[in-house]
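Example S7 (structure tokens).
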């Protein structure tokens, strides 16, 4: 460890000799400091410790929130967190490779092999089935609570040992290390923590989310725009006895998606205007459940009436039921199960935005996950992109250690940026265009997109290519 910490510090031979007899303030010095205990940060910590090549790196992870409760997380079967993600087969594969998947509470996950997506204005529809993927990947994706993944990663890290987890502690300032005696750490990032500690890092990882303090420290710009849309989430109790399917209907205000959870539950992600999001969160459970059912069934005109001119509080359910009774409904198999109950306290909303950092690395700094890019949730890609970053950065660091390189040097980090930047850029652009395409509510574009969707639905080869890319099976 002594040698590793000192190997790339600017020293000459006499200095090095003196250094070997001078104790480095090792407690506060790390090969890698990760800021952020979300899935990206914990994933990188677990990946580095799971490899014999990188396991000896001295690692600290700093997180502002309490990670203890995530580690001991023991929820009841009758409740699900409202923060849920759909993990692609590639992400599941990574979690398996680093030994975290064994710690996932499997009984709380829900793989699905059928996804129905349709245009709320024209009814044009596309269906994705896993038959199109290889037998190796029996599911399109697996729905998992984010807490379940954090819980698994924390337990895997605990099992592997060697990561100093400093939680309930914020990074309040980032500067550079000092020249202490014979040693010059002035190019190493130094973090000041809210508990008064200072940490010096050979490599600082920003896994600290969309408002990344690490990114601000490096002065890397992050560009993009706000969507003026909120993602309303909730845990739904649904009618049982229906096949396991993921449903998404594109409305002009944004898509409404119902993703399956086990035991007759589902999770809702309803992208809509900030004003409607506020209404959806404030209304009674019964009205909200009725409006979610209507969101998958009624016409845009009916829905707009219900949102705007509006049925009054308490009348929404009645109005929805009456309107549904007079319109010609799609066949039952083309519609999601009905919502019968809303889990208490599960409604929340998140403002949606698209951002992409100008670069992912600087000398002794790397950004991963939402710190590097944030996207609209309509394709369920955000965290999957973050996990793909983790895998790529981990491979770059493994290669650097194998070749005796300094893990903080830009040369060690460049392969990561090279591999991930363009890939993420294409995904962010495609999702952004999809959002814009489906925000159009009239005119020839609506006809063209519906025609396009139906044509693609008939072309199995094209659908397979598309699915392989979205499932992360193309790039790796
Ligand atoms: C409605 C919605 C639905 C989504 N659905 C999906 C989906 O189906 N599939 C998918 O792949 N993605 C989905 N996403 C995106 C996904 O949730 C995010 O991409 C993912 O959670 C980001 O993980 P992260 O670890 O990069 O960042 P975060 O989860 O944001 O973690 C960052 C961590 O850094 C910590 N931190 C920040 N600043 C400091 C500081 N100064 N000091 C210490 N700690 C700090 C924070 O406390 C936080 O824990 C969805 C997003 C939304 C909003």
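Recovered sequence:
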């Amino acid at each position: 460890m002594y040698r590793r910490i000192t190997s790339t510090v600017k020293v000459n031979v006499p200095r090095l000799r003196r250094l070997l007899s001078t104790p480095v303030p090792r407690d506060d010095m790390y090969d890698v400091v990760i800021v952020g205990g979300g899935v990206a940060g914990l994933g990188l910590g677990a990946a580095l410790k799971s490899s014999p090549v990188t396991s000896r790196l001295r690692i600290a992870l700093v997180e502002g929130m309490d990670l203890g409760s995530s580690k001991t997380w023991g929820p009841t079967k009758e409740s699900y967190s409202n923060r849920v993600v759909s993990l692609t087969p590639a992400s599941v594969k990574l979690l398996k490779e680093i030994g975290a998947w064994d710690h996932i509470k499997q009984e709380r996950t829900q793989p699905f092999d059928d996804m129905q997506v349709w245009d709320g204005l024209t009814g044009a529809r596309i269906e994705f089935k896993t038959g199109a993927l290889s037998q190796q990947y029996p599911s399109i994706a697996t729905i998992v609570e984010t807490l379940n993944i954090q819980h698994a990663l924390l337990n895997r890290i605990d099992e592997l040992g060697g990561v100093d987890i400093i939680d309930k502690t914020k990074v309040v300032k980032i500067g550079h290390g000092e020249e202490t005696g014979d040693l010059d750490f002035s190019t190493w990032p130094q973090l000041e923590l809210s508990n008064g500690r200072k940490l010096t890092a050979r490599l600082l990882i920003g896994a600290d989310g969309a408002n990344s303090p690490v990114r601000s420290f490096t002065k890397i710009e992050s560009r993009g725009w706000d969507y003026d849309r909120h993602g309303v989430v909730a845990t739904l109790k649904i009618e049982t006895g229906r096949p396991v399917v993921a449903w998404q209907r594109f409305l002009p205000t944004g898509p409404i998606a119902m993703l399956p959870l086990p035991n007759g539950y589902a999770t809702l992600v309803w992208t809509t205007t900030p004003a409607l999001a506020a209404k959806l969160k404030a209304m009674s459970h019964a009205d909200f459940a009725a409006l979610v059912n209507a969101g998958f069934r009624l016409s845009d005109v009916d829905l707009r009436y219900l949102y705007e001119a509006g049925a009054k509080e308490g009348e929404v359910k009645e109005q929805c039921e009456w309107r549904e009774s007079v319109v010609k409904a799609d066949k039952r198999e083309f519609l999601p199960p009905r919502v019968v109950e809303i889990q208490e306290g599960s409604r929340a909303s998140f403002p949606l935005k698209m951002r992409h950092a100008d670069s992912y690395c600087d000398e002794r700094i790397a950004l991963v996950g939402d710190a590097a890019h944030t996207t609209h949730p309509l394709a369920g890609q955000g965290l999957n992109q973050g996990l793909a970053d983790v895998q790529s950065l981990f491979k770059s660091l493994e290669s650097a250690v194998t070749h005796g390189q300094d893990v903080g040097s830009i040369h060690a980090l460049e392969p990561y940026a090279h591999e991930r930047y363009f890939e993420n850029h294409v995904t962010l652009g495609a999702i952004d265009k999809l959002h814009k395409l489906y925000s159009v509510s009239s005119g020839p574009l609506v006809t063209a997109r519906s025609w396009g969707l139906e044509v693609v639905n008939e072309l199995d080869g094209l659908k397979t290519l598309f699915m392989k890319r979205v499932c992360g099976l193309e790039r790796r």
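Notes on this example. The CA atoms of residues 28 and 197 lie 8 Å apart.
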